[in-house]
Amino acid sequence: MTICxxxxxxxxxxxxxxxxLRWRPLPVPALCLNCQERFTPITGAHCPACGRQQATTVRCxxxxxxxxxxxxxxxxxxYDAGMxxxxxxxxxxxxxxxxxxxxxxxxxALAQQSYDVLVPIPxxxxxxxxxxxxxxxxxxxxxxFQQVLRVKADHKSQPQSAKTRAERLVTPxxxxxxxxxxxxxxxxxxxxxxxxYTTGRTLRQAASQIYLGGAKAVTSLTLxx
Amino acid sequence: xxxxxxxxxxxxxxxxxxxxxxxGKLAVKRVGQRYQCQRCQQWLANxxxxxxxxxxxRQCLQLGRVTSQTKxxxxxxPNRFSPSESPLTWTGKLSPDQQRAAEKIRQHVQQGQSQxxxxxxGAGKTEIVYPALAWAVARGWRxxxxxxxVDVCLELAPRIQAAFAAVSQCVLYGEQPAPYRYSQLTVCTxxxxxxxxxxxxxxxxxEVDAFPLATSPLLQLAIxxxxxxxxxxxxxxxxxxxxLQRQIRQRTLVATYLPLRYHGYLLPQLRVKLAWRWxxxxxxxxxxxxxxxxxxxxxxxxxxxxxxxxxxxxxxEIMAELGRQGIRGGVSVHAADPERxxxxxxxxxxxxxxxxxxxxxxxxxxxPNIAVVILGGDDAVFSTAALVQIAGRAGRSAKxxxxxxxxxxxxxxxxxxxxxxxxxxxxxxxxxxxxxxx
Lengths: 225, 438
Ligand SMILES: [Zn+2]
Ligand SMILES: [Zn+2]
Ligand SMILES: [Zn+2]
Known about the structure:
The complex is a heterodimer.
Chain A: E1 2-3, E2 10-11, H1 17-21, H2 33-36, H3 61-64, E3 73-77, H4 81-92, H5 103-112, E4 117-120, H6 125-131, H7 135-138, E5 149-151, H8 165-170, E6 175-177, H9 181-185, E7 189-196, H10 201-212, E8 217-224
Parallel strand pairs in A: 3-8, 4-7, 7-8
Antiparallel strand pairs in A: 1-2, 5-6
Chain B: E1 12-13, E2 25-26, E3 28-31, E4 34-37, E5 71-73, H1 96-110, E6 115-119, H2 125-138, E7 143-147, H3 150-163, E8 169-172, E9 185-189, E10 200-206, H4 217-226, E11 227-237, H5 242-249, E12 254-258, E13 271-274, H6 278-283, H7 289-301, E14 305-308, H8 315-324, E15 330-333, H9 340-348, E16 354-357, E17 371-375, H10 384-391, E18 405-409, H11 414-432
Parallel strand pairs in B: 6-11, 6-12, 7-9, 7-10, 8-9, 10-11, 13-18, 14-16, 14-17, 15-16, 17-18
Antiparallel strand pairs in B: 1-5, 2-5, 3-4
Bound molecules: zinc ion (3 copies).
One zinc ion (ZN) is lined by residues 4, 6-7, 9, 31-32, 34-35 of chain A.
Pfam families (chain B): DEAD, Helicase_C
Keywords (chain B): ATP-binding, DNA-binding, Helicase, Hydrolase, Nucleotide-binding
InterPro entries (chain B): DEAD/DEAH_box_helicase_dom, Helicase_ATP-bd, Helicase_C-like, P-loop_NTPase
């Protein structure tokens, strides 16, 4: 018997043949089947730039508008009603325990990516004080990462959701590189990690800072698109 | 600018103006080796710590997160309301029976007693409380009308506001769109009471036996703490649980009975019918023959009906089978259904001929002329209270006081038998007060 971290109901974790054949001890799933099904994984064809689910593999309309500022992002889940409900409770209500819900899928997704350094998108000082955690690093479970990006002290934090698309697109560079960053990322393949891909602005701003620090390549992974 | 009235009789975190709010109390406190939430009194798990070092409570997260770095502030309830001589603007009339019950309730309130009103489904219990409420409001009391069910609150709020048109009212529930406003009347879910402390002179708890209040010590604590030490409460129910019934028998709780519906007709009794192996039928996507027959007859007569089934997961299969059997013109509805209100209204407006549903429609919904059918009344989800409530959907209007209630079972359970006994007993009392058979 396990208690689902999201709905608090008890459930019998299913055991697959694959699990039994693995030599490692069985990981305890954090979510019951019902709650797992609230997420919609992005599978098959998707936009090569932002990772959104679509019928074709050419750049989507939104990504075309970015022109030459390309990005290679992969996303795990669609940003639908279920994911919104999850983010609402985890990020905005601050239910840190819910980080466990997506640790396993993220673990598997990271294992398939090729990169040298993992860089999570940071939260600003005020968010750190009020929320008490960085929602992105919460999903990591033992994987090494480097916090080389910082939010500039003078950056006015305003929730992305409160801005219009136009406002989000003109936000000035919010990030700066940590003093020790150069040593870590120079000539490395960097993977950025963020929660939701909305317009792609944040990730593009982060990527340009990372390139500034001498990285060889920058790609990104988000939980949702 | 901080609005101090927000803190009258409440326990809230504050970000500004704390100098005018006194010292405040820590929201999450260390007690020995563990941490306890001071808002909901639950213990934290030893994994509920944030990377910034604070401890947070997951149990009452829906009310806004509190941590070991949060302080809760209170201003003692000042009862700052403008007096009104006769606040009751309701012009309806109570039946002699309702009048008698209303008078008793008012007397108990005046004597400062906590009490219970046991009124059958369709007795008009809301209106019975009005005279006592008018008295309380005129005295400048702060009153909460709380229910464990959101739909009950939503249905009540406009009625109470209309009945007390000049009295300030605030409605509180999980996703309420309007901001909090200090008001003399608060209509809210019992959960919301966790935000209050010694605020109310009187708390009316509607559907006191409904889930989750009946089984939640947390919500019971919320009621106790929201009530002033000098305050009192009134429980309203059509189906008191065994614990409340015991308290009534032992006279530790004063009770007023209203065994007769407002229109003076007796309650429809559950007719139990055998449906051999309904569970296996259901698994194969089939329904018992007698049930199909009965529903077809209803359709031919133009009789609208509610079909109650044990589980949400059975709904699609049942709808498909009904369709194959030619029973069309209805839809299914369940708790998380976003179109729930809309579907209920469609049945009321006769745009639908039936609804297939689970126990979520057991309370708070009224249709003027409806037949009620329960499939699998012997399933554990149908408690005695649920069955009596479901049966109580039938015969609500004075024009159609009859209404059939049929319950298909494979075995006679304790809950079914008790429901029948409760209805028989209430009807016996009803008859003594002149109740008629429909
Ligand atoms: Zn769950
Ligand atoms: Zn794209
Ligand atoms: Zn709590």
